[in-house]
Structures are given as C-alpha cells and as structure tokens.
C-alpha cells in the first residue's frame, strides 16, 4: 500500500482523543461530553480501516473489525465504570475479546519462520513482566484475581503472536503491530495500577495516549502486511 486514503480521518481520530483527554482533565463531571468523545474514537479508526482495505472480503479483515467493535464496547464500558463498577467487568471482558480476536488476526498469515519455536527466550521478558505486575497487584485485586490472571495470559499471548509475525510479513507491518501490542500492554498496566493499586498523576492522559497510539499502529500494521519485503 503506497498511500493511505483519507488521512484527515486519522487527524480527526487523534484530535478527538486529545479532546477526550482535555474534557476528562478540565470537565471530569460532564459525563455526556466525556462519553460522547470517548465513544467517537474507535468509530473513526474503523472508518479509516475500512476505507483503506485492499482486499475487503478476507477472513482476517472481518476478524479485525470484530476486534475493533469490542474495543468500542470496552471504551464505553470503562468510561461508565467511573460511576458503576459492574461496567469495569464488561470493559475487561470486551478488551479480553479484543485481544483474542487480535490473536486470530496476527496468526492468520503464511508461516515461514517461528520465533516461538526458534527463539522462545525472546518471550521470557514479556512473561516475567506480566508475572511481576500480577505479584505487585495481587493483594489489591480482591475478587478480580482470576479475571486478572486470565487477562494477563491473553495479552501475553497476543504480544507473543505479534512477535511471531517476524519474517512472515513485511518489515513495516511487523514493527507497527509489535510496537502497538507493547503499547497496549503499557496502557493496560497504567489502568491496572490506577484502578487496583494507587491513582497517579497523569494516569488518564497516559492511558488514553498509549491506547489510541496502540490501536492506530495495530490497524496500520495490518493494512501494511504485504507492503514490502520481509526481513531476511
């Protein structure tokens, strides 16, 4: 894909994200504006994605759309969780499904090389990271211990599968999706610490920024899967 169509949609995507951060910061009690801005982020990413698809009718593209739809539900639910904790469970479940569908997308490629088989040790840092994070949060998780473990395993697997795309897709696609996966892990880490351990300065800003960049990089990486030669 030499050019990306309708770049102004991505400008709107990031503008709405910044607008949501601003509303959260300066008008935290305005739930209508906050919810409206949060619920517009993913739809613009979906529009950008659909407009730039070259092969519209293939399985991975439908799966990617499903993942984005669950991301949308997750965004809305996590925003509403500020006033009702049950929405946090819905948000967690939505993003769990998002990661599962991302795994299906990332794995649906021709396999010429496998880091998991040949260099499994590269997965160890991500495994240790999730273990240390769970240890750090464990006593604060309460009834969320099992859901947190399941979620950690899923996002670890998503990151590992993203890494396993190495040499199987274009170099730019691999880098974009892998960085996006790492940023998703970082965003989820900020959420976990802020919700279960301690609220920290600029938490909302860091959560949204890492999240919207992660989603954009994953989408862009998928669009560029076959752009150029793979790494040799």
Can you lay out the helices and strands and say which pair or pack?
Layout: H1 7-26, H2 31-51, H3 59-80, H4 86-107, H5 115-118, H6 124-137, H7 145-163, H8 171-197, H9 203-223
Helix pairs in contact: 1-2, 1-9, 2-3, 3-4, 4-7, 6-7, 7-8, 8-9
Structure at a glance:
This protein is mainly α and 232 residues long.
Describe the structure.
There is one protein chain. The protein is globular, with a radius of gyration of 18 Å. It has 232 residues and is mainly alpha-helical. The chain has 9 helices and no strands. It has one domain (7-223). The two termini are 20 Å apart.
Tags for this model:
mainly alpha
Sheet/helix structural class: mainly alpha
Low-confidence stretches are none
Major beta sheet summary: none
Termini separation: 20 Å
For the residues shown, what is the average pLDDT? Answer: 93
Order of helices and strands: HHHHHHHHH
Total beta strand runs: 0
Estimate the helix proportion, in percent.
over 70%
Alpha plus pi helix count? 9
Assess the beta-strand content as a share of residues. under 5%
Output the radius of gyration: 18 Å
Shape: globular
């Amino acid at each position: 894909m030499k050019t990306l169509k309708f770049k102004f949609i991505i400008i709107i995507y990031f503008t709405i994200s910044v607008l949501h951060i601003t509303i959260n910061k300066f008008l935290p009690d305005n739930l209508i504006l906050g919810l409206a801005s949060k619920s517009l982020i993913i739809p613009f990413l979906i529009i950008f994605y659909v407009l730039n698809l070259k092969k519209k009718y293939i399985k991975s593209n439908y799966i990617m759309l499903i993942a984005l739809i669950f991301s949308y539900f997750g965004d809305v639910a996590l925003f509403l969780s500020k006033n009702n904790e049950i929405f946090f469970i819905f948000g967690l479940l939505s993003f769990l499904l998002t990661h599962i569908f991302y795994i299906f997308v990332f794995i649906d490629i021709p396999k010429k090389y496998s880091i998991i088989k040949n260099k499994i040790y590269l997965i160890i840092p991500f495994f240790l990271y999730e273990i240390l994070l769970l240890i750090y949060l464990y006593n604060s998780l309460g009834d969320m211990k099992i859901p947190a473990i399941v979620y950690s395993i899923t996002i670890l697997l998503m990151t590992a599968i993203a890494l396993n795309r190495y040499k199987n897709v274009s170099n730019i696609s691999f880098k974009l999706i892998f960085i996006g996966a790492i940023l998703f892990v970082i965003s989820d880490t900020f959420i976990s610490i802020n919700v279960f351990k301690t609220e920290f300065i600029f938490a909302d800003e860091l959560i949204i920024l890492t999240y919207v960049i992660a989603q954009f990089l994953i989408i862009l990486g998928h669009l560029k899967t076959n752009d150029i030669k793979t790494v040799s």
